[in-house]
Amino acid sequence: MSIDTFAVDGGDTVFGALRAHGENPSAFLAMNEGKEYFTVAGRPGVIPYRDTGGQLRQSAGVIAPHDGQEPLLRAFIQFAAERRRKVVATRLRRPEAQLFARCGFTVNQAGSSYSVYLPEFHLGGPRLADLRLAVSRAWLAGLRAAEAADGDNAARRGEVADGRRVFEGRIGDEVVASVTYLPVFGTRPGWLHHTAHRAPGAPQGALEAVGLEAVRVFAAEEAQWLHLGFTPFAGLGAQYELGSASVLAARLLRLAAERGEWRHTAAGRLAHQRIWDPHLVQPGYLAWQGRAAAGALGELLRLAKSP
């Protein structure tokens, strides 16, 4: 078995695998975050990861054909063991979590992901009253939203180097809010809400107004889904746990969701996701090797504190 790893400039190999096999909405994000990529000669697919010294941190699962995912993951586990590393994986959907469980990982639900089906998104109706109110406040303050010129031009050329598109909200000539989106492939293609920035003094509803403009543009382009992202500690439930779950880790996760200092960040993120009245809510999972969960929970806390 010939194993290869390469750095971020792996280029066409990475993007080709992503287009062909990327099912997780966070797969493109994982590619951007990864410092190295794991492949096996003769097998299609890739695993993005970061070597942190004691761990190989992986996100969004194995990007490969369905029948090639388990062999590639098992090869990656062997690769990690030879380097005396443990594998920790985050932002896993249930099918990916089941794969990691089959390969001997402890797997616990760690949060939830939220998505809007754009063909059925309509601003009218009582469930989106809070969104309408937020957007109207921003409009009354003089905010106007549009896609940033660089992202717009790159999208038209089809030469988006890292896939992102940026939408901005301006009052006069000043940018007071912006939201970045990354492409999503697979069976629920569309765009992933990646990062958002709201300047001090920006009006209430600024981010929602920018997001609504992005939804308008994506819907006009016939995009199918707007994925609002994974929120750690959100929507935890015993009914979502797999057979390989750690009872202790589940208790710690629920305790963190109720009392942890990072719960305020997660709560703010969740409130922004729910204001869009998502059509699809999916449990997200955390996987690690062995019984000790400290390193895996530490990675989850890093995600919870990230913007």
Quick tags:
Aminopeptidase, twelve-stranded mixed β-sheet, 2 domains, 307 residues, alpha+beta, globular, single chain
Brief write-up:
It contains ten helices and twelve strands. By secondary structure, the protein is α+β, with helices and mostly antiparallel strands. It has two domains: 3-113 and 233-265 and 282-305, Aminopeptidase, CATH 3.40.630; 115-229, Gcn5-related N-acetyltransferase (GNAT) (Aminopeptidase, 3-Layer(aba) Sandwich), CATH 3.40.630.30.
How does this model look, in words?
- With 307 residues, the protein is α+β, with helices and mostly antiparallel strands.
- The chain is 38% helix and 30% strand.
- It is built from 10 helices and 12 strands.
- It has helices at 12-21, 27-33, 66-82, 94-102, 129-140, 149-157, 206-220, 247-259, 263-274, 294-305, and strands at residues 3-7, 36-40, 43-51, 55-59, 86-92, 106-117, 144-147, 165-171, 174-184, 190-198, 225-232, 280-288.
- It has a 12-stranded mixed beta sheet, sandwiched between helices.
- Strand 8 and strand 9 form a beta hairpin.
